[in-house]
Amino acid sequence: MARMNFTVSGMSCGHCAASIKEKVTGVPGVSEVDVDVAAGTVAVEGTDLDDALLRAAITEAGYEVPGTQAA
C-alpha cells in the first residue's frame, strides 16, 4: 500500500472535499482518500498510484495542486 500527499489550494468547505474525494476515488488503484480542508491537504492511499493521474483528478475537480501544469 502506497501513500501520496498533496497540497491543494482553493478548498474552503465540505463540498470542496466531497468534489475532490469523488474525482480522486475514480483514479485506478486508489483505495482511500482523506481531504483536510483546514490544512489544505489531500492524502491518497492505494496500490500503483500515479502522481500525474492524481494531480489531474484534483485539477479536474476545480482545485489547484502547486507545481501541476494545466492540461
Q: Briefly note the structural class of the backbone.
A: alpha+beta
Q: Number of helix segments?
A: 2
Evaluate the radius of gyration.
11 Å
What characterizes the major β-sheet? 3 strands, antiparallel
Low-confidence stretches: none
> What fraction strand?
25-35%
Secondary-structure element pattern, one letter each: EHEEH
List how many beta strands DSSP finds: 3
From the N-terminal CA to the C-terminal CA, the straight-line distance is 28 Å
Assign a percent range to the helix content: 25-40%
Categorize the overall geometry.
globular
**pLDDT average, as an integer?**
92
For the biggest β-sheet, the strand order reads 1-3-2
Overview of this protein structure:
With 71 residues, this protein is an alpha+beta fold. 31% of the residues lie in helices and 27% in strands. The chain contains 2 helices and 3 strands, in the order E-H-E-E-H. The protein has a 3-stranded antiparallel β-sheet, with helices on one face. The radius of gyration is 11 Å and the shape is globular. The relative contact order is 0.30.
